[in-house]
Amino acid sequence: MLYRKLGQSGPSVSALGLGCMGMSDLYGATDRKESIATIHAALEAGITLFDTGDFYGVGHNELLLNEALKGSKRDNAFIAVKFGAMRSPDGGWVGVDGRPQAVKNFLSYTLQRLGVDYIDLYQPARVDPNVPIEETVGAIADMVKAGYVKHIGLSEANAETIRRAHSVHPISWLQIEYSLFSRGIEKEILPTLRELGISLSAYGVLSRGLLSGKWSKDRHGAPDFRSFSPRFMGENLDKNLALVETLREIAEEKQTNVAQLAIAWVLSRGEDVIPLIGARKRSQLQDALNAVGLQLSQSDLETIEAAVPAEAVAGTRYAADQMGMLGVE
């Protein structure tokens, strides 16, 4: 495993993080035993970064991590937690809450569910449009001073918001979607992060399965949230799968597969970029781990980017009603 420093003065974490959302929510049926086995396999492979959210499975994901990381395993884990997204009893989404009192309330429940004394990195899942980011980050900073949080992150924030938050308390990372199919951050957000010395926690590196190399048109309409994603619809899906086939040709020449090529591309973007892998099974995890040792030359990178120009991807990454909550398309 490779390791990368978090922010300017943070600890080293594994260059690949395990995103645990799919073990509890949004991607269909889950297998608790396999999920825990996957977390244990990640630890054994040297992964130290585990990403969760208090709203993943309405608390289920934090309880799952608690079970998987009991005992000495907690000492080897850097736990990043998102908060603020609110759920209804039927699993629906009912807004975000970044008020200072809500921050402290969310954190209290997270500490209990995870069975820990502190959270390694705490971040709002979305910027609350009704609460100045200075107030939200200020509340987390209070929790840093109190010893309940070690580092502060942001998720899906734009460059201006990042600067405002960073002026209140050092931000260690920004978590945002970044992949061959989602490169909107390269224009303004990524340069801002590098100016300020903030790491990038890249999620969606396989574009929710499109870049796995295993998605096919007949899977459209799968009973999960991708059914509502523009990238998985109609002609958009046809165009995107055609791009994947072009990548498959490049991958085969490199004696690898599409998923590993896509992950290796994200890893190649800089020592300050830390991809999150949403593996739900040990087999998926192993596939991702194989990407760590895949070296891409400058010629390889140019070939890949020529095959998948940023503007060639069809459809937005979220449905229209959710795009307005993001810092960048």
TrEMBL record:
Gene3D superfamilies: NADP-dependent oxidoreductase domain (3.20.20.100)
Protein name as catalogued: Aryl-alcohol dehydrogenase-like predicted oxidoreductase
Residues in NADP-dependent oxidoreductase domain copies: 16-307
Entry keyword Oxidoreductase: yes
Keyword flag Membrane: no
Key words of the record: Oxidoreductase
Organism field: Neobacillus ginsengisoli
Classification via SUPFAM superfamilies: NAD(P)-linked oxidoreductase (SSF51430)
